[in-house]
Every structure is written in C-alpha cells, then in structure tokens.
Design a protein that fits this description.
This protein is of the alpha/beta class and 306 residues long. The protein has 2 domains: 236 residues, TIM Barrel, CATH 3.20.20.70; 59 residues, 2-Layer Sandwich (Alpha-Beta Plaits). Helices cover 33% and strands 22% of the residues. It has 11 helices and 13 strands. α8 links the parallel β11 and β12. The longest helix is centred in the last third of the chain and has 18 residues. The radius of gyration is 21 Å and the shape is globular.
Length: 306
C-alpha cells in the first residue's frame, strides 16, 4: 500500500456535488499569493501555534529535544526551522491534541497507508454514499499521485462517487492514470490567472489537452472554479481567456469563489506574514455579481460559493 500525507477531512457541501467527505492532501506545486492554507504547501505541515490558547506553562519547552520552544512569563517563541515534527511538545501541552484545530499546538499532517485511510473514513463514506461522495483536495491532491490514485480506486470499488480538485498544472501522465477513477473534477485553471504563467494561446492548448484526457477515460462531471481576488484574478484579459477556454471545451459549470475572509488565519498559525492585504483583495458583492453576469451572458452556468 502507498503512504499518504493528509490533513483531517470533514463533511462539506461546497467541494463537489452533494455532501462530500473532503480529504486535504499535503503538498502543492504553486504558491498562489491568495492561498488560505499555506501550511498545505509542504510535504508535512509546519507546527501550528494558536497564541490565544497558550497558557505559558513551559511544558513544551521542557520536553522539546531541539530547543524549538522558548517560553517566558509573557511570551512563547517558536523556532520552526528546528522542528522535526516529533510531537513531544503537543503531547506535553495540557491545551493541545495532535491534529486538533482547537489546540495551542498542532501538526495537522497525518501519515497513513491508503488502506488505513480508507478504513478510517469508511463510516463517513457510508453517510454520503447516496447523497454525495469523497473529494480529494489540497494543496494539490494528485501531487501524491500513487497514494491518491490507490485511494480513489478503493473508493470506486466501494461504489463511492469520487471527485478531485486540481490546479491543472501537473503532467498529463498523472491525469491519464487518475482519470479512470474520477467521477467529477473541480478544475482550478491556475495557468489562466497566475501572471508569470499567463500566455493565452499556450494556456488554451494545455487546457484543451488536459480536458480531453479527463473525458477519454470516462464521462466525468467537469466544474470550473474561479477564485475572485481583486487585481489578481479579475482582470478583463484573464476573464475573457477563461470564458473562451470553458466554451471551447464545453465546460458549462462554473463556481465563483470570493476571496476567503479568513485567509490570514493559517499564516498566523505558522508564524508567517500573509502575502496580500486582505482589505484590498476582497471583491464587493457588486463586483462578484458583474463577474457572474459576464459568464452567464456567455451561456455558462455560473454560481457563487460562499
């Protein structure tokens, strides 16, 4: 069995058709400035620290073998570069639980082989088997291609609807291998709105090739996704290219995702500064409505996901 590195999943109605069990796979090949889960970029998440939950007891400092923690009567300092993810600080902290979101200290990455992951999620899969299915998200789920494909096959054999969210920046060979086990794709089209990669004709050719791969393997549902980040993904040239790609490839479903208002949360937890000013990049309701109208006018079924 392949080994998967993932973060705790939960039930969602916004990550694919119906009710979904969402598994967040670690690792991502891009560094979008508007990323709201920067901890998922790495193979293993950095140590997360919620300052407001820390009682400055110093038990983490006492057990850490690498001097990651320094606790004073008024402050808790963390040197994450020294962290080896041993978890001793988390187990020692009275206010922490491994992989729990309400912990002072946590490391959300779980390392399991795919069969263990499937058995762990089986009770949740039973709940959504008739009303939705499983979604692999990230990060970029297929960056761990062997583990992700093996897990998707287990879900397919169990007759669970499968969905994968992707940036569409991976090699075609990975998509070719995975496509036979995927019922629905959530397509990020990162090539369109990452400025350093934006070149209309090349992007359109690449997207056409990938969409063909998806459809050759089966008859999947294709849902495009557009994060609306003011001055980053809402430029007229980008929207025009995005619209043309959808029409050329007969992708008639589009989900508009407004900038996440909690984008800064995980930057704070990993001790980094957010890359964007949240106040400057959140679009107004009027701006979102205009983008919806733009795509609907072209005959594309565009909806807003909050």
């Amino acid at each position: 069995m392949e080994i998967a590195y993932w973060a705790i999943g939960w039930l969602s109605t916004k990550d694919g058709p119906g009710n979904r069990v969402v598994v967040y796979m670690q690792g991502c090949p891009v560094r979008c400035p508007w990323c709201h889960s920067p901890h998922s970029r790495f193979d293993i998440s950095p140590l997360l620290f919620q300052k407001r939950l820390c009682h400055l007891c110093g038990k983490c400092e006492a057990v850490c073998p690498n001097q990651v923690h320094k606790v004073t009567p008024t402050e808790h300092f963390i040197d994450r570069d020294k962290c080896t993810y041993c978890g001793k600080c988390i187990f020692a902290c009275p206010y922490s639980t491994v992989a729990a979101s309400n912990s002072a200290l946590s490391i959300p990455t779980v390392r399991q082989d795919t069969s263990e992951l499937f058995e762990l999620l089986r009770p949740q899969l039973d709940l959504v088997q008739k009303s939705g299915g499983i979604t692999l998200s990230g990060g970029e789920a297929l960056l761990q291609d062997k583990a992700a494909i093996e897990f998707l096959k287990l879900c397919r054999d169990y007759q669970v609807n499968t969905c994968v969210e992707t940036s569409m920046l991976l090699p075609d060979s990975i998509y070719q291998e995975a496509a036979q086990y995927v019922d629905c794709w959530l397509l990020g089209f990162r090539q369109v709105y990452l400025p350093q990669d934006f070149e209309s004709q090349t992007v359109r050719s690449n997207c056409k090739s990938q969409v063909a791969i998806f459809r050759q393997a089966s008859n999947p549902r294709l849902i495009a996704r557009l994060p609306v980040i003011r001055e980053y993904t809402d430029r007229e040239e980008q929207l025009c290219t995005f619209r043309d790609i959808l029409l050329e490839n007969e992708i008639m479903e589009l989900e508009i995702l407004p900038c996440n208002p909690h984008m800064n949360h995980y930057y704070e937890l990993i001790g980094k500064e957010a890359e964007l000013d949240l106040n400057q990049c959140i679009p107004s309701n009027e701006e979102l409505e205009n983008i919806l109208k733009y795509f609907r006018h072209a005959g594309i079924q565009a909806t807003r996901i909050n």
